[in-house]
Amino acid sequence: MKHIISFLFVVFFCAYACNRINGPFPVYSVHGIDVSHYQNQIDWQKVAAHGVDFGFVKATEGTSLRDSFFCANWSEMGKVGIRRGAYHFFRPSYSAHEQADHFINLVEMKAGDLAPVLDVEVLDGVSRVDLLKGMYIWLFRIEIAYGIKPIIYTNQKFYNRYLSGHFEDYPIWIARYNVWPPRIKGGARWSFWQYGDRGQIPGIHGHVDVNVFRGTKAELDKFTLPAQSVLSYTAVEEKLLPLY
Prior knowledge:
Blueprint: H1 2-16, E1 30-35, H2 44-49, E2 54-61, E3 65-66, H3 70-80, E4 83-89, H4 96-106, E5 117-119, H5 128-146, E6 151-155, H6 156-163, E7 172-175, E8 190-199, E9 208-213, H7 217-220, H8 233-240
Parallel strand pairs: 1-2, 2-4, 4-5, 5-6, 6-7, 7-8
Antiparallel strand pairs: 1-9, 2-3, 8-9
Helix pairs in contact: 4-5
């Protein structure tokens, strides 16, 4: 099987080596997108009809920013049956506790939704130690709140430079715009791959980030919230009171 997959990659690379991939990645069977206010209003019915299996939408950033299209995207994705997930853009120089509060206060999840995502791309002037400390706090808070380990999103270079050796028990989502899959240091294994940022999908004006999941649709279900996993906000605060 490994030899067959390697052969398919070689054939695919030879065909697309001089081109950016805009459509579905043929080697993988589960495809998705991620969006924010930059895509403006989206016709999710058309997106679903195009065969998109999952989508991540920006919810929050820092301690106060809310994506202006999050509520509309979140609601419409639920209606059309696309596996949906929400992400938080992490600002390492801000309080990790306050950033977790910000996400929890906005994002209400239900069984079948994909695990929350921590988008980590910048240092904002802090040290690597402080970055890792803040990430651990946010990830722990969110796992307690939603009953599932969050997904970590970053690009290949950032992961290898700052995150390698940590968070290896968390699902990893790597951005690498290439026909070759991510190569990350340490013992981690990526689960999601953002392979391009110029995808064109019916129902979305302009370009959109395109992704694949490393597995089958049945295996993707393992990254979704189980029934009755979300605690109330009060319960979260009671469990975390000793940390403040």
